[in-house]
Amino acid sequence: MKTKDFYYELPKELIAQEPISDRSASRLMVLDKESGKTEHRHFYDITDYINAGDTLVLNDTKVIPARLHGVKDGTGGAIEFLLLTKRSLDVWEVILKPGRKAKPGARFVFGNGELRAEIIDIVNEGNRLVKFEYEGVFEEVLDRLGEMPLPPYITKKLEDKDRYQTVYAKNNGSAAAPTAGLHFTPELLGKIKEKGVNIGFVTLHVGLGTFRPVKAEDIKDHKMHSEFYVLPDETAELVNRTKEKGRRVISVGTTATRVLETVGMNGLPLKGATGWTDIFISPGSEFHVIDALITNFHLPESTLIMLVSALAGRENVLNAYAEAVREKYRFFSFGDAMFIK
What is d(CA 23, CA 15) in angstroms, rounded to the nearest whole number? Predict the structure, then answer.
């Protein structure tokens, strides 16, 4: 299939620039993956579509304030670091802006010198490996000095950085939020549990590759970015029990889906696992684990719209997106949600 097969027209004003005040009050389009029929609800109505014995799997990664502004040691030239992946203790892969001339040995200073960094290598796509120096706990220093790395299509400043975190975020490491989970509140999760729905967690640290457009003309030529994941033993066992009882595994977001389907390629029952995944799910891919998906509305020609098209069919998805545009749904990270049942 061609990348252009996943294009749709989106008016710029439908790209959500900020979250609504009540997370769970966003709109919810319900898409039947077999018939293509849609319903229009609110996200708090998700309880009408999840039943006792089903299992909801959420990604508990936590976004780090990964954008740092500093200066080059010696010259005072301004520099921006964007932290991508932790490689080892105090060593991170980063994007530098401007950074084309930054060579190993170059040093940078952030804040009032409480954080320093030295370039130790140049890696893929011109990214740098840097080693940080600081006193105390790195996460606390980063929390003081860093900014949330919002997606490039969000141009408005985020007033409350907690709104770019899920309410169950726990494990630091993401450069972007698993946005399907932003709609949940503690109260809504409580109602879901009261219905007898199981809740399990995975971790996948979302990289900025999630925003990269597919540049290959044919999607089979696209090289997927790699991301670190953890499938805990208890979540694997929960999924196995759900499958054995004939109930549904409902993934919250494409990131949780990628974890489950990566491990699921080895067949059921699932076993706990940790590693890196570059799985590319597109039409023709077989789903081994998930039965339904809660997700947001994704960018045209992105790997994410290809993933949801693999589950619900390209025509069904594009028809649903066209309907969402007509109904003026809010799109992307701070936008409305879709439940593919």
Answer: 17
Q: What percent of the chain has pLDDT over 90?
A: 88
Express each pLDDT in 227-278 by its tens digit: 999 999 999 999 999 999 999 999 999 999 999 999 999 999 999 999 999 9
Partners of residue 218 on adjacent β-strands:
2
Alpha-carbon gap, residue 18 to 298, rounded angstroms: 16
Nearest to 300 by CA among 261, 339, 332: 332
CATH H superfamily, domain 3-63+160-340: QueA-like (3.40.1780.10)
Backbone angles phi, psi at 36, to 5 degrees: 85, 0
Q: Do residues 203 and 234 make contact, with C-beta atoms less than 8 angstroms apart? A: no
Using DSSP bridges, classify how beta strands 115-122 and 128-134 pair: parallel, antiparallel or unpaired: antiparallel
Q: Write out the two tokens for 75.
A: 């010259």
Start-to-end CA distance of the chain, whole Å, equals 24
Q: Answer for the pair 269, 240: CB distance below 8 angstroms, yes or no.
A: yes
* CATH class belonging to 67-145: mainly beta
Report strand pairing: 61-63 vs 337-340. unpaired
Q: Phi, psi (5° rounding) for residue 221?
A: -90, 0
Q: How many CA atoms lie within 13 A of 150 on its CB side?
A: 20
Amino acid making up residue 257: T
Q: Provide mean pLDDT across the span 294-305.
A: 97
Q: Which residue ranges make up each domain of the chain? A: 3-63+160-340, 67-145
pLDDT digits (tens, 9 = 90+) for 151-163: 889 999 898 989 9
What's the whole-model pTM score?
Answer: 0.92
